[in-house]
Amino acid sequence: MDRQMIICSEEELYVLRLADVIADREELDLQVQVCTSFEQAERLEEFQGAELLLIGDEIPYEKRQMSRAARRFVLTSQEGTEVGEEEIPIYKYQSVRRIFAQIVETCLDQDNAGLFLVPRKGGRRLIVVYSPIHRIGKTRFAKALGHVLSREEGTLYLNMQEYPGKEFRLGGKSASLADLLYYSRQEQNHLGLRLASMVKEEDGLAVLDPIPVSLDLKEVAWEDWNSLILQILKKGPYQNLILDVSESVQGLFDILKICDVWYLPYIESVEEEGKLDQFFDVLEFMGYKKLSQKARMTEMKGEPEICVKKALQYEKNTAYGDVAESDHGKAGSVEGNRRWRTGRIDLSGIGRLRQRYLSSTPDEDGIW
After folding, report:
1. Per-residue pLDDT tens for 277-302?
2. Displacement of CA 179 from its chain's centroid (Å)
3. Are residues 229 and 177 in contact, defined by beta-carbon separation less than 8 angstroms?
């Protein structure tokens, strides 16, 4: 017999809309049934049983306590409404995402993870967007990349900037990256479920609010970042994890080392060329010389969506090791040619590379 979630309320339009959205959640391993009276819910419970009951507070407590459901949530019309000791109140006039998140959190805390499952699909990619050049639209590029990828595959975007911007405010009620780090340190069994209930969706892209205080971001150790990243890739429901990182993140070079793709946005100017030269010199000095060959340098010319489109087109053209219209013969992917320090995507011609010489000494850092 299929396990049931019963949603019961005399507000028919509300309960139908709520049921439609909750039933579409891939994490829910229950059938959703709708009732507009407690008598209907009683009959369902009698013949089918119920793991979870969501019931409106317009149903008197004397009736609600007759329910046989294993767990009972009361949809309250006002925040702070008192319910029975065995009941869990949920304010009904909030987003369905937050209602569902509260249900998941309560069930996980009470060791009822079996009511849910983490949707799992295909391979996973860790994508990092980082540049030593600032104020060139890097975060806009990272978000635009996330929106494009989310049209085909589940994609999660995490902002790991020191000051993430005006869209984020201190004291917000939404779950943040700080909360996810807390859960990853406490327990690893249900992180995928917690993550799925914590994120917000922006036109199909899963987004989690960043760490709100810059000092807290700087104090997160590389070991914690590494553990969190691996848990998300292993247990989360997303095929793509995009990290929008900054120098404030401990273990920045280690994150670049383990990622599958690293986009390095840049702009053409004498001053910025100097910053890039210094950055690549630091990479070499720190023993990460091979990282410079991993960078997919993307010129920020035009709107971020245009830059993303051309960067992805470059990926497509070089998927089999050939660079379309390359000025350098059979250069192939930048990573495969040790004579070049890095490759830059020239947006004036898709697939064209502009590369500069390195010394021809062999790569002896031994990191990879």
Report:
1. 999 999 989 888 888 888 998 999 99
2. 13
3. no
Distances (CA, A) of 292 to 22, 165, 245, 288: 46, 28, 17, 8
Helix (H) or strand (E) holding 354: strand 353-357
| Dist. CA 136–CA 126, nearest whole Å | 22
| Positive or negative: CA dihedral 29, 30, 34, 39 | negative
pLDDT value for 171:
53
The tokens of 304 are what? Answer: 């971020």
Distances in Å between the Cα of 45 and the Cα atoms of 4, 41, 215, 218 are: 9, 6, 51, 51
Burial class of residue 264 (count of CB atoms within 10 Å of its CB; 0-12, 13-18, 19+): buried
In the predicted structure, residue 320 carries a pLDDT above the cut 70: no
Residue 293: what pLDDT? 85
Q: What is the mean pLDDT of residues 193-208?
A: 90
Give the amino acid at 112: N
| 328 Cβ neighbours under 8 A, 6+ residues apart | 340, 353, 355
203 Rama sector, left if φ>0, alpha if ψ -120 to 50, beta otherwise: left
Q: What are the tokens at 166? A: 């005006």
Q: pTM for the whole thing?
A: 0.74
pLDDT score for 357:
36
Instruction: Quote the DSSP letter at residue 211.
Output: P
CA 170 to chain centre: 20
Question: CB under 8 Å to 311, separation ≥6 — which residues?
Answer: 145, 263, 296, 298, 345
Closest to 345 (Cα-Cα) out of 307, 290, 319: 307
Residue with tokens 């806009």: 140
1-34, pLDDT tens digit by residue? 468 999 999 999 999 999 999 998 888 888 999 9
Q: Region 119-135: what's the mean pLDDT?
A: 87
The conformation of residue 365, written as its DSSP 8-state character, comes to: -
User: How far apart are the C-alpha atoms of 32 and 11, rounded to whole Å?
Assistant: 17
Radius of gyration of the chain from its Cα atoms, rounded to whole angstroms: 25
Which residues have C-beta within 8 Å of that of residue 118, sequence separation ≥ 6? 27, 192, 193, 196, 235, 236, 237
Q: List pLDDT tens digits, range 134-157.
A: 999 999 999 999 999 999 999 999
Mean pLDDT of 57-85: 93
269 Cβ neighbours under 8 A, 6+ residues apart: none
